[in-house]
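Sugar ABC transporter permease, Inquilinus limosus. Tokens?
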Amino acid sequence: MRSARTRARSEAIAGMLMVAPVLLWLAATILYPLGAAVAISLRDIRVIGSDGGFVGFGNYIDVLEMARLWAALGRSLVWVAGNAVLQTLLALGTTLLLNQRFRGVRLVRVWVILSWIVPTIVVVIIWRWLLGTSGGVVNYLLVTLGLVDRPVGFFAGPGSAMASLVVINSWRWFPFVAVMLLAGLQRIPADLYEAAAIDGAGPWQRFRRITWPLLQPTMLVLGVVGTLLSFNVFDIIWLTTAGGPSGSTQTLPVLIYETAFKSYRLGQAAAMSVLVSLLLMALAVLLTRALAPKGEG
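Tokens:
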């Protein structure tokens, strides 16, 4: 009995020692920054490095009363929804294509991966050149083909600017989603498709009865991770429109940056960050429960 207990205790200690480095890493990269943000949010800090006066929950009250916060939240939700729909459609279509057997499929798969690892600044430069009002390739083609009378200002209007950013960000990230979906798709046994084909099931029926249900676990993970990543996107928006025109693309990350480093209200920016973190945690739980297969508690 003692040997069994000793063995179990040794295994537990060994397990804790193996997990300890990961826990320390999470504490250093997540818990400490979050704790520091909470501490800053309770003080009226205007200059980096200063202590500021203790204001308690005053920053949270001020932030929640800001109309700009709620407007930015609404734009963030539109941003996340637009990216989720477009990225899913692009990735799913690409995945179904890459799962086929044709000459050059390996080259196409490599191209998809390479397009994902392109630096963000390069992506922004390319798309600003493509969608530019003066000399942009897309506008040149639209005018040449007679589809429009004059160049379209893709970044000039509130609606077109947000839509353009959704396209750019979706193009940036759909290869990653496609690669993950392809991995999940290739785990589906080929025997299922062969049996369905023998039973007379067409391509759409095979997709609806086999592919889509068996891809749902992968879609669940990608849905949660993709939503959290899209919500926190800052670089593409800032490098392309900087939140303009007239704040129409000012999402929560952009608002937090401007509050901290342009308005010099670090306490309020930290309060926004804490609120956003809590919102994303709640959103992750809701998405996990909503997308989980029926029957799982």
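The beta strands are 43-44, 53-54.
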